[in-house]
Amino acid sequence: MAVFFNKPELLTNLKKKMRKDHFTKLLVLAIAIVSLSASSVFAQATAVSQNSIQHNEGMIGAQCVGGLVYDDNTWENGYGWNPGYGIGKWALKMTPATYPFTINQVCLSLTRTAAGSANWTFDIVFYDATGTGGGPGTLVHTIANQVATGVPIWPTVSWFDFTGLSGIPPLSSGQSYYVGLSYDPATMPSHYIGADESATTTMRPGYGYIQSAWAGIQTYFPSYKCIGVRADGTGQTFAHNIAVGPFLSLPGLFNSGVQKVIKAKVQNQGTSNESAIPMKFFVNGTQVNTSTIATLNAGAVDSVAYNWTPADTGNYVLKIVSALATDEFRGNDTVTTTVHVYPVGYFSTCWGTGSTAVGYPFYTFYMDARTDMLYTAAEIGLGAPATIQKIGFTVLSAAPQVMNGFKLRMQNTTLTTLTSFTSSGWTDVYTGTYSITTPGLMYITLQNNFAYTGGNLLVEICFNNSSYTSNSTVASTANAGRVYYNYQDISAGDGCVQITSGTTPPATLPNVCFQGTVPTGIQNPSGIPAEFSLSQNYPNPFNPSTVINFALPKTSNVKLTVFDALGRVVTTLVNETRKAGNHSVEFNASNLASGLYIYKIEAGDFTATKKMLLVK
Question: In the prediction, which pLDDT does 388 show?
Fold first, then answer.
């Protein structure tokens, strides 16, 4: 979080000012507030910001133009680190178009304030992408003690070109490096890397490092799109080189017994025309299908597709391989992925492709927050009743502040826009504490499954903290009038109750995913099952919780009992009258030992049993 001000301010006003700057860019210089607690993330990052320079910086010698470039060469800001928190780093993800690829040039756009030295000493660093959430992982190479001479004073930003680099391990098929700089703010204070915050720039994964930990740059600067790091290099040319990938068609949901199509791109990256290219499809290391590409000229692109019907649930490794005997580079002839196969009736649906970072619904920069989000039936895409078991959000930057008094609520609704909070009709599907620890698609498993009726769905998230730190951001997509929220510091109250009014934010709705089950038995036109049934629990094996679904064609006295392998009763999950319909029950085995368990349903004259396996 950057701290901006243009005149001395009392520290009692500083919190409000810092939070305001999440939304309003002040046209002034950022400096370190050393009197803040060292544990505060917002004392670590600094920035410079001035709109007058926008669209002019490109006149100052752009470098690495033909290489790996993700910025638009305009610098709306500059990012740096304050002294006193250890080594600071900035790194941007670099992904070449062809492989193998060896980086031999790095370009950095740099600036400083008048307090900073004109000569900036730093290390150029290269990390693989094996870290948490695909972030920086292992340090693969360092070019130490590089010096940028004559770093200009903001608002001037200049490129510095480092050529003839050697010793950097080549990138193989599908690999990326995080490339950037590492320096000590204690000896090199008041230095900044150019920051592209243009609305038209596609956000590129970038990370900052301070206090021995990486975090997405958006954790500190929500307007971030890219930083001034570029790279270039050379790719090796082969006469015979068939590259496979990425997947062109990979279903988001696999169900046992349901056929799916898996399709992948195939490109001739060699200089020779090829014919009769053998292609192979593997599942868990076993070849299950083959095909042949008749001809593929140099530089041409084709594809292969295979049908696959998984026989059972579980994890499967899918692999499509080019088996050209004369291929001279095997590093790119395979594309692989791991998929999970769900039981028949299990669904997974997602909405939203945007990448705009928003702080709601996990806005922990305040003690309390409340957010209502509206998703239409068309966006959810099921078109029928279902049981929702999980909800997911795409986390762009994670701030692991624990949210106490965390409540996740849902309700079926006929609303089409939001202009206020909804005060009644909610079903609490998760209560307690929650925290976000890593970027990526994050699912919240509901404590109480929600009976979705197939129409519009209203989701509310709120929490009640007694402190605040930074906030996480999630990806969102343009969609006006579909979010209503507010956030406050309520020291002696509960934001879930006391926040009763709010605002409609900029027209973006968080991207969302839902997982759960849909009825799979024979249905009457009314939607009531035509027969009794007991489904296999999911997941299975499980740890520590699993869900058991059953269907009733009529109102019945139901008893659902769990036994251990010796036939002893472990627990009775249901022992009551249930109405006709589809039902879900969660079985939590936190206090039980690993092993085989049996569950039995008794409903009128209907009985059935199934087995499940607890693995801890």
Answer: 92
